[in-house]
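Worked example 4.2. Below are the chains of a multi-component assembly; read each line carefully before continuing.
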Amino acid sequence: EAQVTQNPRYLITVTGKKLTVTCSQNMNHEYMSWYRQDPGLGLRQIYYSMNVEVTDKGDVPEGYKVSRKEKRNFPLILESPSPNQTSLYFCASSLSGLAVTGELFFGEGSRLTVL
Amino acid sequence: LAKTTQPISMDSYEGQEVNITCSHNNIATNDYITWYQQFPSQGPRFIIQGYKTKVTNEVASLFIPADRKSSTLSLPRVSLSDTAVYYCLVGPTLNYGGSQGNLIFGKGTKLSVKP
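Applying the procedure described above to all two chains together yields the following structure tokens:
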């Protein structure tokens, strides 16, 4: 089954404790991206990757890191989480970054709480 | 980057046709318009995409006027299960200049369908 898998789905952590949210896709997609969703603010892009070893900042990259060492994986790293990073996070992938391919496939989301 | 403006919320009744309009005044020549649907605690999913005039699929129609500065998502005969948030997404452009993968979703329109 074609899918984007995120882990963990739910996490409660404390300020300053490094954490990684994994994202994996099995569709051989080139493009992957991370979003956070907060009430009243919609979806905001954190980072994106056009292909392996190519990453770039989205609109809200502060406090996050990413890496793209393999095509299928695109982990989101919070080196020193803070309470303002409490949010619902989504990973998405697409055949390419071009809109002509149409569809972004989203994961089920990871709800992160930083105390 | 083309930013979008949508109504924050809309109400409808079962069986009615719903039209959600999105404004994108600074859309670029090579930008496409894509709509996504999101249910609570789930990732968004693709509904429809178009460039100009009209596009129709099994779930919706997309109307785009000649100037492309707005677009309208039309949902025929909505049911309770169409209650969701709908996002209009414009871009990215085909210029490979770094912004190609930067996607701006906006805040979406929360559609509530009542019996």
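Take a moment to check your reading of the output against the notes. The mean pLDDT of chain A is 91. Chain A touches chain B at residues 4, 31, 33, 35, 40-45, 48-50, 56, 58-59, 88, 90, 92, 97-100, 102-104, 106-109 (CB under 8 Å).
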